Structures are given as C-alpha cells and as structure tokens.
Amino acid sequence: MTKQVTKTEETAKAVIHRKFSGVATSDKMDKTIVVAVDQVKVHPKYQKRYTVTKKYKVHDEKNQFKVGDKVNFVECRPLSKDKRWRVIYA
Fold this sequence. Notes:
Elements: H1 7-12, E1 19-29, E2 32-42, E3 49-59, E4 70-75, E5 85-87
Parallel strand pairs: 3-5
Antiparallel strand pairs: 1-2, 1-4, 2-3, 4-5
C-alpha cells in the first residue's frame, strides 16, 4: 500500500536556507564575488581553538560589493557550476 501525499503536506515542508557572513576577497568577476568565511573550531582531543577559512562564490546582481566589504549571503538554487549563494541586500 502506498501513501498518497496531499498538496498541503507537500507545501508544509519548511525549506531551510543557510545564512553566512564574511569578507569579500575578490570582485573581479561580473556579478560574482568571492567571500571568505572564518569559522572557529575546537580540536576534539587537545581542546585547542583554530580557524578554518572557506571561500564561497556569491551572486552579486548589482556589483555593489568591493574587496574588504562585509557581506551577508544566503543559500539559493544553483546559478552556475560553483555559485549556490546570493547576497542579502540590507
């Protein structure tokens, strides 16, 4: 026996979008910036704190952000091979 899913159950699922903030490190591409996000982690055995930096390619429709600007961005649908993030304009 298969369970039929109604339309209200399908739309009731909440979509979770991840949000990050970081510093723009490159703005040389058109409508794209590279944003570095720093995360502090703790070593499980030695309890030492260390910083991990990850870079994201973020869609900037207005070409508004320059190198050194603080950027807030959110997850979205794939825009290109590497871009899955878009800027939150505040």
